[in-house]
Amino acid sequence: MLDAIDSTGLRCDGRLLQLNSFENRVYRADLDDGTRCIAKFYRPGRWSDAQILEEHAFSLQLAARDVPVLAPRVVRGQSLLRHGAHRFALFDCQGGRAPELEQETTLERIGRFVARIHLVGAESDYAQRPALDLHTFGTASRDELLAANWIPESLLAAWSSVVELALRGVEQAWARAGAVRTLRIHADCHVGNLLWTDDGPHFVDFDDSRSGPAVQDLWMLLSGDVRDMQRQLAALLRGYEMFRAFDARELHLVEALRTLRLLHYSAWIARRWHDPAFPAAFPWFGSERYWQDRILELREQVALMQEPPLLAQTA
Fold it and tell me: What is the pLDDT of residues 254-268, one digit of tens each?
């Protein structure tokens, strides 16, 4: 890894700090000139070169519009770099802290920048990256888990039944929302992918970027009970609608998207189980208790998807 970074013309001083990342291997490297960079080594077989380059192009396009995202460095005309069998990218080292989402002014500022991401994202479509939809996160996740026999036999019938109800609820939510527009989005816009400084937010890790509805980049910033989420959403949309109109029909998708994420998360762990980091980090995965909790979780989601959606109030 040090040799890979050195091959770009940088000179490491030998210090590497592994950062929190399960999907790829990400390191902070200290350089001889006293600066630092971030090196992301891509997991083999996950994204094709074309899919990685699409994400890079989107990030670089955002950075060129002064949207505060952490875009890859371009080295000798290339953002996707190679060293031996490894594919990697380099990024500037950006400091920051978790945003204080309980403050409405913070949410408003985040909403403004999410809208600016979406303005650029709507200018063209992904050609290589998959969409976030009922199939990719829902039925495909169900099928993977069933094919690999992850569900304990004693819970298989109950889990299969509630998954079918949940997927039907997702389909009905999409029908209520109607023909909402999809665009290039961050797609994993949770608080861990936001670094806050005195100048505002920096959006990091576009590795999961896909095509999807705009609300996907808003709902993961909401938490608490319905009143809390309504207040938070109002603050986000006050900022968002300074730059881009929000289609209120997409609010029918909030709990549906949460349901898809829950299914996708279990399938993701199962898909990566051969990686030694995963059994160590998720030792409870595959236990009866884990799947009992998932059944209860999905039952709650089936009920929540029948509730009235949040309101697009900005006043």
Answer: 999 999 999 999 999
